[in-house]
Amino acid sequence: MKKVDSFVLKSFIGPLIFTFFIVLIILILQFLWMYVDELAGKGLDFKILVELLYHFALTFVPTALPLAILLASLMTFGNMGEFSELSALKSSGIPLQRIMRPLIVLIGFVVVMSFFFSNNVLPYSTEKARTLLWDIRRKKPDINIQAGTFYNGVPDFSIKITTKDPVTNRLDNLIIYDHRDRRGNTLVILADSGYMKTTPDGTGLIMILYNGYSYNEIEEKNVNVASRKYPSRKDIFKEQTIVISLTGFDLERSEEGLFKSYAAMLNISQLSLYIDSLNKKYNEKIINQFKEFNNTKIYYERNYVPNFAIQDGNPDTLKKFKEFNTKVLFDSLTIFEKRTVLVKAIENLKDGNSFLAEKNESLHYEVKGIKKYEVEWNKKLTMSFACLVFFFIGAPLGAIIRKGGLGTPAVISIFFFVIYYVISISGQKLVEEDVIGTFAGMWAASYILLPIGIYLTYKATTDSVIMNIDTYLSFFRKIWDYLYRISMNDKRRDSASD
User: Can you give the pLDDT at residue 253?
Assistant: First the structure.
């Protein structure tokens, strides 16, 4: 039996490693596709890009691992079925569950390691990746002036050029609007040619202009609009140098812990602490709002019945008011007093409804904050447990379809992973909106797909032909023959009656 275990493990580990890195690369490419606009043109060092991709690659591991296990198990058992290895093992008296046993032990170990990774490494990598991405977003793109359009990337300047020499970087026919005085387009510089370069420390931009002139409108102070003369000054130059201070063009690294309170950056123990603290805060807020409502005149006001109505000195009337029988009180009032009471009651009802709606919205916001932490707490478990769920789907399904390689297994893997992903995302959204419970939403994909895996395992054990197309064609053929016989019998009856 040890040889069988060794054979099955060797057949599985190779495809697992192979598919894991394929899926991880696909997820990294998806990340680059999503954020290419924010990364392009920033002049980032290769070291920064490698660091960003490294940390994001670690965050993709819990997602890539279940899909890799599903694909690898389909390939392994599909190959074994295609080359009659499963048939040989079963004919030797070894059931499918015994063949799967070493892989179940391996997947159990992978589940435990995946949980420890999600609990310890994932929060650290997520914080590093998000912080670095935040710093890159704040960095301004490198100066890259294109011919024929105004470039506004340099602070307080708008620059347009006609042509640009790609070899010498010479700029021809420059038009520069200087907005440093914040007075609009009052200072314009035109030059036949020029060059731009940054200072060695990268904190400034040097513009060297040749053969041009500057036109500057001089500001008039304390002058009426009717008497303005619009004075201006025109300066001609053969060479002019402008130095501009650059801020935000270099990558400024943020301090550690910028996003440390976010749910995705916490482990299980920290999430439990946050959830407990937020629940206490939520309960205290409910009590305080109840006290606030109890102390408002909307709730405790008792003077909506005019005082003169109970000042007649009659003991029976006083007893009725002490018992607070609303019908007796209302019937004892005059028409004018009844109208006053109803108007006051309607006003209090509107005020109370507005008060409760406002507080309910505030409490719903608090609940959504708690649900985010509960979602992350459960996600660390569900993503690890998904490895086991996908194995029980992939292994028996591969034994049934008996097709190896990347073709059919890849299609089936994507199909089941999309189902799992859609259910997980839908459940997560419903939990975050406090529509359903946390356990019901976050574990929905697991307790929906796990019975499917158990059913497939049973079918594979009994050599089911549920994936055999001929079986379904034979079934529909029987239905067609049955319907054909019925129609022929009806025709014979019609002919006999005629």
Answer: 64
Q: Which of 399, 370, 413, 376 is nearest to 468 (CA)?
A: 399
Q: What is the mean pLDDT of each run of 10 residues along the chain (498 residues)?
A: 81 89 90 78 76 90 90 86 78 81 90 91 87 75 73 80 83 87 82 83 79 82 67 84 71 64 84 88 80 61 47 51 62 80 81 78 81 89 90 85 72 84 89 86 89 84 60 65 71 63
pLDDT of residue 107: 92
Any bridge partners for residue 317, and if so which? none
Question: pTM of the full predicted structure?
Answer: 0.67
Domain boundaries, the chain: 2-139+376-467, 157-245
Distance CA 150, CA 148 (A): 7
Tokens 């805060």 belong to 281
**Distance separating the N- and C-terminal Cα atoms of the chain:** 74
Q: Which residues contact 309 (CB under 8 A, 6 or more apart)?
A: 332, 333, 337
Q: What would the two tokens of residue 339 be?
A: 């109208």
How far are the Cα atoms of 73, 232, 292, 462 from residue 235, in angstroms, in the given order? 78, 10, 71, 94
Dist CA 49 CA 472 (whole Å)? 52
